[in-house]
């Protein structure tokens, strides 16, 4: 198992990571657990969630596997309550659940459009809104959204739904940060490239944003492209 290169102490924290069964979400869940946080491992596929949770527990961490479709408001709410029941106060949320449906503007069918927007954007909104309310009542926290350089200035040859959803994540992040700041909640996004993102490298940046070292950072969408996209 590879680990994030950056390490922080998150002992006493508890996190929800959506889309944690694979890719960036999995790397983030493992990195948070290695840093001392208890982690609810969410995935639409229960087998993948179980596998990652088992890995965390094998390395001495605390984890709960939870199958839920985050774009279903009731399932998202149940997931948050399960995390609170298991771990108490939830201080960290990483919205990593996402789907990719590439297709040109002229050809994309409605189902693919709606599924991409529902998971990538609406799921992030539901989790941010619902857990944001709880965090506001319980002393604050940190939320990190998974964006993409494709939605932050670097378009694709096709992929209208994906690019639109990730561009919206940038707007959601900025507005959420503004509205939640008075409650001690920071909200940021990381934007790796769609084609060659290294999950462990992305996880390292997310660890930083979750930590107190980033206490002055909120409302930012950070491009993780090695400087390929210069503004």
Which key features would you list for this structure?
about 230 residues; alpha/beta; Rossmann fold; 7 strands
Residue windows where pLDDT falls under 50 for at least 5 positions: none
User: Numbering strands along the chain, what is their spatial order in the largest sheet?
Assistant: 3-2-1-4-5-6-7
Number of strands: 7
How much of the sequence lies in strands comes to 15-25%
- Dominant shape: globular
Structure class: alpha/beta
Care to describe what's here?
The chain has helices at 23-34, 46-58, 73-87, 110-137, 160-180, 199-210; strands spanning 14-18, 38-43, 63-67, 92-95, 141-146, 185-191, 221-223. The protein is an alpha/beta fold and 231 residues long. The chain has a single domain (14-223), classed as Rossmann fold (3-Layer(aba) Sandwich), CATH 3.40.50. A 7-stranded parallel sheet has the order 3-2-1-4-5-6-7, with helices on both faces. α1 (23-34) crosses α6 and α4 (110-137) runs parallel beside α5 (160-180). The longest helix is centred in the middle third of the chain and has 28 residues, at 110-137. The radius of gyration is 16 Å and the shape is globular. The mean pLDDT is 93.
